Amino acid sequence: MSSARLSGVGVSSGRASGPVVRVAEPLGEPPATPAPADPAAESARIRPAADVVAQRLLARAETVEGDAKAVLETTAAMASDPSLLAQAEKLVTDESLPAARAVHQAAGGFITMLQAAGGYMAERARDVQDVRDRLVAELLGLAAPGVPDLDGPSVLVARDLAPADTAGLDPTKVLALVTEEGGPTSHTAILARSLGIPAVVAVRGVLAFTGTALAVDGDTGDVRESDGTVRSAGNTGKPTWNGIGILRDGHRVKVLGNVGSPADAAAAAAAGAEGVGLFRTEFCFLSATEEPTVEEQRKAYAVVLTPFAGKPVVVRTLDAGADKPLAFLAPEPEPNPALGVRGVRVAFDKPEIIDRQLEAIALAAKDSGADVSVMAPMVATAAEAAWFVKRARAAGIPRAGVMIEIPAAAMTAREIAAVVDFVSLGTNDLAQYLFAADRQVGAVAALNDPWQPALLRLIKLVGEVGVETGTPVGVCGEAAADPLLACVLTGMGVTSLSMNHTALAGVGAKLAATSLDVCQLAARGALAAADPASAKIAARAPH
Ligand code: PEP
Ligand code: MG
To answer: What whole-number distance in Å separates Cα of residue 414 and Cα of residue 523?
Structure first.
């Protein structure tokens, strides 16, 4: 990067600069060959490496308090576990394995045992994996994988982040996030927005950047080398909104929050959301190794629902798979996970899973006093929609709908509308499947732009069905979070818009300054455009 300047897709607003910390790539399984020339010497490398790892963890523990301290101390103790180390040493001397492979294999035995024991023990399997990876990295002379512990405010650079890694980021330490992969609708982008961390994704060449500091603009997508001074401008010019989704002429469009955790729910309520249009329940269980019980689910959901007592909340059943894997719902390995058994499809073979979840949702609705509806993700046909609605009704949940996020569902919206109480457009997946463009792949990020006219035309089909049949049509994909696009969607017949808490005021204020006529004109212009840039220009014209 001699010009010290890169660019990508800005996905989370704000500007920041500071020292770079790189997220190391997953290590994979270390090779079993070549056999060490001197197995005794190779085996003697294991304990010193374990000491280094344990000392590093204990040093970190000294700098924190409470749960974080306890977790680090326990992990340090695991790194020095005598039986783990003895087994690894034996594998080196008896089977002539390289030390890194021996540690991997020995830890594998413990992990399998813990997972088989289930419950609390199974949760510890993840800790052993963490220790294993740190030890293997140390023996191979590589950086430990995953998000490193941050000593101070930093700009994180990664190929991409798993949802659990992104959700765990500390916004007080992560100044900005820059990834080589990912698109405007990837979960890295969605989570960065909800944490208020400026982020730029699909930055070609950032992994090869060797400098020590970066300045990041989450609005323009500009990423350039900086002098290492820590600066953070955050979001500028926050609009004001009175918390009612209403156009200037009195036309109502509900402005709702997208949530996935108690913190999101509190933030959405504080920002004035009229309710929740999408509760991503899978985000409550990203680290669970076993299916949570009905009681565990009930508690987890009730905490998220409580800030919305008396208000509408759409709870989406688990959308596991592809970019949001859940260990306890892992399908057989698939060549194309985004096209495989994900979302509601998981439940077709295991209906008891969705029935238990619906039971927990119904209980949490009573506990919290929220006005709860349920919605299924990844529905492709009217028959699937009817299957889901029947189960929701059997669980005593009065309102049930489905997401329209597969083009086939959009094209049969009329048949689907006949069997549900509402639909909600998942524009993130709808774009991914319409354009055959993986939402996690940086190189195809432009196709996942929600202003793509082809996507708008598909949305219009659904909006028209909604108007003609009186079926409420929401949008809960990232398209709803763009104030100008929110007007276009309203002009196409959409009745509610659901978004990240950071977008609520901007969208609410824009709608309040616009009339339905203007929204319809904006929609007409955008629909007739040939590309995203001209769609935006056409939508701006009548304002
Ligand atoms: C979508 O696909 O637009 C959506 C809202 O669901 P998710 O982003 O969770 O896949
Ligand atoms: Mg989706």
So the answer is: 21
**Is 448 close to ligand 1, i.e. is its CB under 6 Å away?**
no
Mean pLDDT of the chain: 92
Q: What pLDDT digit, counting tens, does each position of 470-522 carry?
A: 999 999 999 999 999 999 999 999 999 999 999 999 999 999 999 999 999 99
Tokens matching residue 316? 């989406």
Question: Which single residue is written with the structure tokens 């090779």?
Answer: 31
Structure tokens at 255: 């402005």
419: CA distance to ligand 2 center in Å? 21
Strands (DSSP E) along 282-436, which ranges?
A: 312-316, 371-376, 400-404, 422-425
Distance CA 169, CA 80 (A): 27
Q: Which of 156, 472, 79 is nearest to 312 (CA)?
A: 472
Q: Which amino acid is at 405?
A: E
Tens of pLDDT, residues 48-63:
999 999 998 888 788 7
Only one residue has tokens 């490496």, namely: 49
Task: For ligand 1, atom 4, name the residue with the nearest CA.
Answer: 426
Q: CA geometry: angle at 493 spanning 338 and 371, to 5°?
A: 75
305, 434, 485, 490 from 474: Cα distances, Å: 19, 19, 13, 10
Alpha-carbon gap, residue 30 to 90, rounded angstroms: 17
pTM of the model: 0.79
Are 347 and 312 within 8 A, CB to CB? Answer: no
pLDDT at res. 460:
98
Q: What spacing in Å lies between the alpha carbon of 408 and ligand 2's midpoint?
A: 14
